[in-house]
Design goal:
Layout: E1 3-6, H1 13-28, E2 33-37, H2 43-52, E3 58-59, E4 68-72, E5 88-94, E6 108-111, H3 117-127, H4 134-147, H5 158-171, H6 176-188, H7 195-199, E7 203-208, E8 211-220, H8 223-228, H9 230-244, E9 248-255, E10 260-264, H10 268-278, E11 282-283, E12 286-288, H11 295-307
Bound molecules: manganese (II) ion (2 copies).
């Protein structure tokens, strides 16, 4: 049986590249594995795969009950393949907090509090004395630059920096900053992408205080683009909230270069939450969340603290 390997829904660059690279490593170690994706690629990820000369993984929509799977870059069922609970997770490589994962049998778990799954995968190559191929290095480097916003997100660790530099040498990327800017430019080039797709570019659902909230993020070098489409995006947020029966939906426009966060706020009830969580006022349905550029490290923990 070939082991399906996949990252989270609404995949980012780490979710896609980690699935590809982990499947490659497992195959080299004698475990037949194949990477899949749980959604469309964003423009940054499409650029990265093209730069590395790697094919886009096949879309996975469902698996038969009991199928063994490996997860990368996530572990919560709400961010995974529908019906994850009926599958058999045998491996997880991740850098997020533990969610609702349970198992009947022992499984392989590799979690580290680093900035990117790609960082952990590089360590696995080292531990297994497996040489890293140029394309693998390019994918893991790209994931690290994406997740850490070129080593500037507060999620960045010294390990991410060391491994990023190491991978750049293997990948033949002599100017890391220039490459990161190319990636970010690709990510920010959104053209006439429909508003519901913009909301879902990097969107995750979280349980806070017994309720369910959707948190979307647009990491961009051009926040004016999102602000110019505010009305449409707010409408898409309302629609998603109603369709999925969520308690709340927020959408943060994160300027990667200036390190700012402007969060779209649906109504007074949402504004009250934003005031309570961050102490931020909402003006014309936008709250300034300052330099909170990391959902994982600065936004989600604040919500969790607020909702207890
Ligand atoms: Mn991710
Ligand atoms: Mn990640």
């Amino acid at each position: 049986m070939t082991l399906p390997v996949f990252g989270h829904t609404n995949p980012d660059t780490d979710a896609i590249t980690s699935a590809i690279v982990y499947a490659s490593l497992l195959s080299k170690l004698g475990v037949a594995a194949r990477a899949y994706r749980l959604g469309d690629l964003n423009n940054e990820t499409a650029f990265v795969l093209q730069q590395a000369g790697v094919e886009v993984p096949e879309l996975l929509e469902s698996l038969p009950e009991g199928t063994e799977v490996a997860l990368v870059d996530h572990n919560e069922s709400g961010q995974s393949l529908a019906g994850l609970g009926s599958l058999k997770v045998t491996r997880v490589v991740d850098h997020h907090k533990l969610g609702d994962l349970t198992s009947k049998d022992p499984l392989y778990l590799r979690f580290e509090p680093v900035g990117c799954t790609g960082t952990i995968l590089t360590k696995l190559y080292r531990e297994h004395n497996q040489p890293i191929e140029v394309w693998e290095a390019k994918l893991m480097l790209s994931a690290i630059l994406s997740d850490t916003l070129h080593f500037r997100s507060p999620t960045t660790t010294d390990t991410d920096r060391e491994i990023g530099t190491y991978l750049a040498q293997i990948a033949g990327v002599s100017d890391i900053k220039a490459y990161a800017l190319e990636m970010f430019a690709a990510k920010s080039d959104l053209g006439d992408t429909p508003a519901d797709k913009l909301l879902k570019l990097d969107y995750k659902v979280f349980p806070f205080g017994g309720n369910t909230y959707g948190l979307g993020v647009m990491e961009t070098t051009n926040p004016g683009y999102a602000l110019g489409r505010k009305a449409e995006i707010l409408a898409a947020m309302q629609q998603e909230k109603d369709a999925k029966g969520l308690t709340g939906v927020f959408f943060s426009v994160v300027d990667i270069l200036e390190e700012t966060n402007q969060t779209f706020v649906l109504d007074d009830a949402h504004a009250e939450i934003i005031k309570g969580v961050f102490g931020a006022d909402t003006v014309e349905q936008v709250a300034d969340l300052g330099n909170r550029i990391s959902r994982k490290k600065q936004v989600v923990p604040a919500f969790e603290k607020y909702f207890g």
